[in-house]
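Table S7 (text form). Paired inputs.
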Amino acid sequence: MSLFPIFLKLDGRPCLVVGAGTIGQGKIRSLVAASAKVLVVAPHATAAVAEWARSGIITWEPRVFDPSDLDHVVLVVAATNSRAANEIIFRQAQQRKILCNAVDDPEHCDFYYPAVVKRGDLQVAISTGGHSPALAQRLRRELQDQFGAEYAGWLAQLGRKRQQLFASDIDPEGRRSLLHDLASRRAFELAEAGNRRKEKIS
């Protein structure tokens, strides 16, 4: 099966997570990090999830799932400790044409959570189509070593330079060439060498 790789803008959009145990907590955290408007439905929750609810970061309703919970949401994660319950949630979401992920059940997923390396706005996402999350996690660890924390600051610099170039009168082909030069490995190494010299001086 061929998957369509995509990065979703969820800022302010309503998302549902059913289940608030350890696994659900991780899924909730990732949605909160994407600035989604998160509703959690679960009879019980971890201490962290309960604290997020008390702080107003999420909404938690301590009860079992009801199909009406799917009203107006754009995405749902079924993260209960029951595979059968997760499948029911998935079927209900399918009927409403809402994307759903039933945790650890690839057959009942419209999308998979990738293993992600995040450095500021730089995100490298790895998917194995649900075949081997362990492989995705190993590749993530390797990429974490390859792309260090310094990439976050460098990417921010690239963004500022890109805005400056688009505001200038340079011709599109020349701009394109400059943007690729700025994003090259050599440009990164030169920028890092400059940063190290500044640190020594300071």
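Next pair, protein 2 of 2.
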Amino acid sequence: MSVQPFTTEQRQFLLNLARQALTSAVRGEKIPVVDLKQISPELAQEGASFVTLTKRGELRGCIGALEAYQPLVNDVIEHAIAAGLDDYRFGPVQPEELAEIHIEISRLTPPSRLPYEDSKDLVNKLRPGIDGVILRDGRQRATFLPQVWEQLSDPAEFLSHLCYKMGAQPDAWRKKKLDVSVYQVEEFHE
């Protein structure tokens, strides 16, 4: 990670903020607002995050941004709410589920393009467990966070699943040259 890792206090602040935002949104209450002048500069600067919700170890929602466009605290608030209410793969989190929801935050480094010659070269350049990967093919785009390597440890299988997520044939990465970028994350959870 090319950025300074957060302190335990900063991580806890963001996790508490995500929990407050999710709880407020699910209950239809006022969403928390953070005064950027009252928090550490690291949390107030622009940052990109993904917020992942799990329930009993199963994915319950995951939404985020690949590139920074707002203060990190606001990014975490927005994505905690979206993961709970707007992930198209799941129905909205219900108030009675909140106690069982586990929150994970991933702070992303800026993505960098990964040049490669062919599919074999691409597989060799990926760093399982370290790199998050973004695939682009025209207007189609998809990403897997580095944590996905825990379920898909084989780079070829990882890329095939990512192509499928993008809406392409699973072997698209073998048949044509896709635009590939990588990033790393600082991950922390409740």
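The first strand starts at residue 48 and ends at 55.
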